[in-house]
Amino acid sequence: MIMLAAGPVETFDEKDLVARLVNDNKALWNKLLQNNFCQKQMKTQSATDQKTLDGFKWYMRQDFLYITKLGIYEANRGLKATNTQDFETSMDRVGKCAKYAKDHLKMCTTTPPNGLGIEESTILATPETKALQQYVALLLDAADKENWVMSAVAMIPCIQSYYLIAEDLYRNSVHKDTPWHKLWTEENVKYKSSTERQKSGYPRCAIRQKINQLPSSIL
Which GO terms describe its biological process (predicted)? Predict the structure, then answer.
């Protein structure tokens, strides 16, 4: 991967379509990677900072909803498959989304330091933010209108940015003993292989279209 948290470099493998996309959308991509909450709070604040902890808990509640809705996206993608292998791949991902959602709920409700200690009734009653609604709508629209291969493009900004933000925080956070470092950064930095799998196979123009459709409120 040619990306660093500071931004894209000019030289990259022309076969790396994700890198080409990023290079074509530097300003937008950097805005996503350098968002204020990650850079000014998660990276610098200690575990005793209540504002950052509250913000992280709210984010994790939204992430629970997002993960759960990914199962719907994958199921809808499966209906666009033209062969058994692709259909089974989507159905396997539905199962993974369900497990991930259950694990995420457990982590949010588990008593610290292994979780966030949020009441399960609070998690399950979480209202969706406008940004979440917009991004989920983008995913579902792709699953509905695109073929099985192209509908996967909508997930690229999420997978790539999660890993790169986590990598930056893992390397550069002032405090490594915070709940957000343990429960988010250390978990998401494990997914380098997922970003590598996206390096090829997607038409450049289609990826650019999807990243340009990201709601400005999440940036």
Answer: thiamine metabolic process
Q: What is the pLDDT of residues 83-132, one digit of tens each?
A: 999 999 999 999 999 999 999 999 999 999 999 999 999 999 999 999 99
User: Which residues, 6 or more positions from 145, have their beta carbon under 8 angstroms from its beta carbon?
Assistant: 151
Instruction: Specify the amino acid at residue 126.
Output: T
Asked if 123 and 62 count as a contact pair (C-beta separation under 8 A), the reply is no
Q: pLDDT tens across 22-68, in order? A: 777 788 888 888 999 999 899 999 999 999 999 999 999 999 999 99
HSE, side-chain direction, 13 A CA sphere, residue 52? 19
**Long-range pairs, 154-157, Cβ under 8 A, ≥24:** 154/210, 156/18, 156/21, 156/198, 156/202, 156/207, 156/210, 156/211, 157/32, 157/210, 157/211, 157/214
**Residue 138 one-letter amino acid:** L
The model's pTM is 0.81
**Residues whose CB falls within 8 Å of the CB of residue 218, separated by 6 or more in sequence, listed in order:** 32, 131, 134, 135
**What is the CATH architecture assignment of 17-218?**
Up-down Bundle (1.20)
Domain layout of the chain by residue ranges: 17-218
